[in-house]
Amino acid sequence: MSVSPAPDATATTPPRLRFAPSPTGFLHVGGARTALFNWLYARQTGGQFLLRIEDTDRQRSTDESTRAIFEGLAWLGLDYDEEVVFQGANLARHQADVATLLASGAAYRDFTPAAELERMRAEAEGAGQAFRFDRELAALTPEQEAAKLAAGAPFAVRFKVPDGVTDWVDAVHGRIAFPNKDIEDFIILRSDGTPVYNLAVVSDDIAMRITFVMRGDDHISNTPKQILLYRALGAPVPRFAHVPMIHGTDGKKLSKRHGATAVGDYQHEGLLPSAMCNFLALLGWSTGDDTEVMLRDELLARFSLDGLQKKAAVFDPQKLDWMNGQHLAKLPLDEVMPHVYPAFERQGVSTRAELESRDTWFRTLVELLRVRSRTVDELARQAVPYFVDTVEYDADAVSKQWRDASAVAEILSATRERLASLPTWEPTSMETALRALAEELGISGGKIFQPLRVALTGQTASPGIFDVLVVLGRDRSLDRLEAAVRWLKSDVVA
Prior knowledge:
Helix content: 40-55%
Shape: elongated
Number of helices: 21
CATH topology of the domain at 395-488: Arc Repressor Mutant, subunit A
CATH class of the domain at 395-488: Mainly Alpha
Radius of gyration: 32 Å
Distance between the termini: 99 Å
Strand order of the largest sheet: 1-2-3
Oligomer: single chain
Structural class: mainly alpha
Largest sheet: 3 strands, parallel
């Protein structure tokens, strides 16, 4: 008995998509990119985005990896609809679907001993040929099969691949066709009663009513087998979109040799989730124009299947850092702050409680520093001079801006005196006073401002010098000028 093919799923109703990672490692950037594409399309079309944890590999699946998947998706802001499905809990249904295929004649039991299969496989390899299972090897009369079952003989279940061609219209690659003669009768249930990947995936997708499967193009070879299973089970075949693989800058498949590949690594290195999503979206998808930096709302509005690309994408860490800097500068400050606090604690600069107690001042500092930083960790490092009692003078800054120690000491001493005389501590009066001082001394403003910057921050680069003075405040600024003059006149310099 055979089952008539069921119709393919159409795009006339809101799609149901899924992300189905295996908890055998951390959430890597390739998986995160796939999840993002599914999430974007589901949210854009009013569909559903579901999560399935494919934990059937009991030896390699871990709770730690499962937690990392949940945490990574939460950090990226990829929320899912409905309860999480754990594939390992669906064994009874998987076996029931196999029973249905056996009953319909779409599958058969294979009692061939494993040792015999290994022998035939070795012979084929020795002859330089690819081993292909011949279903005649498993052919038994009903009486022979019944006798083996009664004796408890172990068996696997194989799907009986029909004649013809299996094809589909891929949303990325267009029509893809596989001659069925090139697909051997594949195992769907092992002799220990556990399902093989392709059967479990199809069974779960049918149960979850998935209508659109978007995944990496390394799964293309699995797709004809899965389509055959959908049709044999009388279920609609979902649409498919196979997105390109991600390579390193050397053109090879992305791996640990290229650096961090787990999403969690980037989360703890000071990157913003909006930047990570923006960057991941452009790995295999294009807006069609030169637009690269997109905050979440724009990314969601512009994403389309038409922009999905066939060629492999390149993961460039330097571009990711650049993009993160763009997001750090563009995001509303309220969206940046939750990521800043942990960065300051990681760097040992300050605690969240201390920062929140000086909220207005701290937000002003972050606003000044974020346009000069690529990550929140870099922002925290740049903030160190604003928290310490004594700054350390960078050697290059000293050699460049304090070369003539005696002359610089005179300039900084006069600068301190002029600033101390100001009735108000605000940028306009500071600038007016110091430019007047420069004119009196017969030097350019830069001859005051650059040495002053080193005295206040220890560095040659900082936000605008008058903004620095305001953030540090009158007392700390004057104290640092006094300390700088002492240092310049000390034995250290001599």
